[in-house]
Known about the structure:
The protein is mainly alpha-helical. The protein has helices at 14-19, 30-36, 41-53, 75-99; strands at 57-61, 69-73. The protein contains 4 helices and 2 strands; from the N terminus they run H-H-H-E-E-H.
Amino acid sequence: MLRLDEAGWPRLTFNQVLLFAHLEPEGVTPAELARRMAMSRQSMQKNLDRLRDLDLVTLRPHPHDRRSSLVNATAGGRRFSREAAQVLDGFERRFEAALGTE
């Protein structure tokens, strides 16, 4: 079973990986991400800073709220998200094979 770091991706925390499931094509605010993931805004910002440093997400000014920004996946972030979904799918197949579908 291929792991993401074996595929050349940086090691990320569970929350950093899960964050990609909450991104939307039009962008989502850091505050909304924090709410959805039941995290503090400070913790969310630390996660976003790491992902931005790795060029997996971008933060751009919110077009309607000057105090906020919108988070989007970069092309690399979208590739990462697809590969992470494939790895998760592989885990699910292994669990089904071992435990059955019921």
